[in-house]
Automatic annotation (TrEMBL), chain A:
Belongs to the class-I fumarase family. GO terms for molecular function: 4 iron, 4 sulfur cluster binding; lyase activity; metal ion binding. Residues 11-278 form the Fe-S hydro-lyase tartrate dehydratase alpha-type catalytic domain. This is Fe-S type, tartrate/fumarate subfamily hydro-lyase subunit alpha. InterPro entries: Class-I_Fumarase/Tartrate_DH, Fe-S_hydro-lyase_TtdA-typ_cat. It comes from Calderihabitans maritimus.
Amino acid sequence: MKKVSYEQVVEAVARLCKESNYFLGEDVKAAFVEALEKEESPTGKDILRQLIKNAEIAAAEEVPMCQDTGVAVVFLEVGQDVQVEGGYLYDAIQEGVRKGYTEGYLRKSMVEDPFNRKNTGDNTPAIIHTRIVPGDKLKITVAPKGGGSENMSAIAMLPPAAGLEGAKKFIVDTVRKAGPNPCPPIVVGVGIGGNFEKAALMAKEALLRPLGQPNPSPEVAALEKDLLEEINKLGIGPQGLGGRTTALAVHVEIHPCHIASLPVAVNINCHASRHKSISL
Amino acid sequence: MADRYITPPLTDEMVEELRIGDQVYISGVLYTARDAAHKRLVELLDAGKPLPVDLKGQIIYYVGPSPAKPGQVIGSAGPTTSYRMDAYAPRLLEIGLKGMIGKGSRNQEVKDAIVRHKGVYFAAVGGAAALISKCIKKAEVIAYPDLGPEAIRRLEVENLPVIVVNDAHGGDLYEEGVKKYGIPT
């Protein structure tokens, strides 16, 4: 049994909150550069250049790349042979978020009640998703998620007769409706199958996959390629001002489902596709 | 499409010169307000009370900045999505607000109010928050400090780059962009 201390978790989470907001992933930066080569709209090109420059400033000065430093979404992969010592794991996560958002001058965006809207002041609570896995590692991923793009996400409980075409139509229509609002070029996470909550969780997890890495299943990879092409025909373009680069990537995850169901969830991420991981 | 340099307060004539697609550099004073601050401003108007800031001829920037690090004027400060302010914007245009800066599309009521009251809606680059903060030379909270990132701030800016999306003549750059680059399937 491997032991991980409460403090180690707090420190790791605090660091990941800061680093994910300051340092854009190499995969996203590479996708910007590739998009810049393909983009036909002069305004679109100019915006992509600004996004590259913005990422450079944020990293150099260690400031948030976007003022919306998001809900702290935390994915845990807990090896079944890991023991957390000195306190409750979830408390350590919340303390790490509190520490990271405060020390890192990150914006606190969580309100304590959806109706009274009083800010909690420290960006807690984080939203935590836990998976128990084999082994003795504790993997923590912090994925700050902005409100603008999250608000454009959608789920449909389609009838099975809708089939692949129905699912594709819902995904493309969701992006069309989102238009300029979620800060394109976007990353589109899709979950198909499972049930209502499984589809939504898969859509969010799909956003964690490195850009440009297709789903291992050739059929799903072909669907991703097809969807990306369809979405980039919409003409929405960088910041919605028109252009070829509406999405940088579409990532699809699928799962078995009930004979009556065909759930399709679309989680839209802005161009600041942020996430950082650590294994303890 | 032209490069233009403007300083608020804006007049009807200044606004009428702006056309969709124009790249505009704003210098001078802007006021920040987003969801919760807008709600309070409109509640004051409904109650017939004065606003904490005179908005005549002014521009509101929809932003909730991140906290300033030591030595910084303001933290990262990119635009937030504008449609959430659609419920309040026509009311503020009616009392003399001239400009709004945000990102994303506005509803028909706001677009109509922009034409009726000779206003303008600008988009700043969403997410380019570290870059945009470089144009902000001074920032102070002037109302609703309890709202934290949503408090109303008075900003002094220099050459803040924005693009005209909805002009006083009814133009909509987002619709034009999709028309120009959309490929029918």
